[in-house]
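Input (F-box domain-containing protein):
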Amino acid sequence: MSSLRRFPNEMLSEIFLRCVDAAATFDPVHNAGWALARVCQRWRSVALTTPDLWSHFVFPGPSDFRRPIPHRLWEIQLDRAHNSSLSIRFVAHVPADLLDMFFTVADRWKEVAFANNKVFARFVDLAIEFPFLTKLVVEDDSFGPLLPSGVPGTDLVKRLPTLRHLTLALGSSNSFPPQLRFPWSQLRTCNLGNFRTSRIREVLPLLSPGTHLTLRAPGAGDGSPTMIVTNIQSLEIMDGSRAARRDLLNVLVAPRLQKLLFTQSKVEGTDPDAITTFLNNSKCTLRHFRILGCMWWQLINILRLPAVGGVVHLEIGYLPMGEWGRLFVELERVEPRLVPDLRTLVLRGNFSCWKISQRLSNRNPAGGFSRDLSILESGSSRRSN
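Output:
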């Protein structure tokens, strides 16, 4: 405490901001801003003159309620935030009067997340513009449809003129409401969870080339042979069944794709034939490629594809036991011809992965891998040069 007294107010204010947990449920007893303002008179003065300290609001879920939080405390924090941009997360159903209080400052919303379908429906229903909202997250609570069936078509394009980051995570039993229209072309990141192929087919052509698209647990194919053409340059496919990912890759074409990532929380691998079909159809030039769970010879065949020849950053891993050694031999033998521009190789997996990294770090610079190659073990920060 004695050393902190010597800090100038500006530095103390910066330290306070570092203490804020933007995801913490609002509770004046444990909230960082409220706690810091109770330490001493000087800290209170600094806290009250740091508006950004009060700009995060998380409406608690039912399990978070220890006691009712008086509306007056929400009003006090909102007042202390002054004109700061607001970050808001609605976990539970919010009383109408409290919700209306935050809608009156819609011009200050910067980030908002909805984990309650009824509150999101109210957001959609109100004809209010959110001129500075850059990030919108919608997480289906699975307690009914995302929007009531009677809600008319809603065009959010004009109401969200600065939206850049969109996450739509649907429940397994719900589908994307066809009456909702988002400003797809202006997005920089787009995360779609549990979207069926029919909806993906509608959205992908609308995304701009600079959008990073994440498809989480894509649904089964719609049976249509019509190809889905998109100009995106960055794509990540996460989780979902092997069959669903195969159905999607067989009809997807992305000629401008530079970054392709496959991520699995439960690694069952991705169909290498589907990846081959997708890359051959797309005729793209990848620079960053992540592929997990293939056999060594399947991986080598994929690395021989023209689309992979220009890869600079390669991530491989989660091979079956005994595959790492053979992969190492093949990579060391053919790597310069397959991926001559490779500069970073990430190895993900078990102890075998670590042993291979050690062998690569002692490789002969006259053959096999280039000495300029950086190797990261299991995605960590440990490097071998």
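Confidence is low (pLDDT under 50) at residues 364-368, 379-385.
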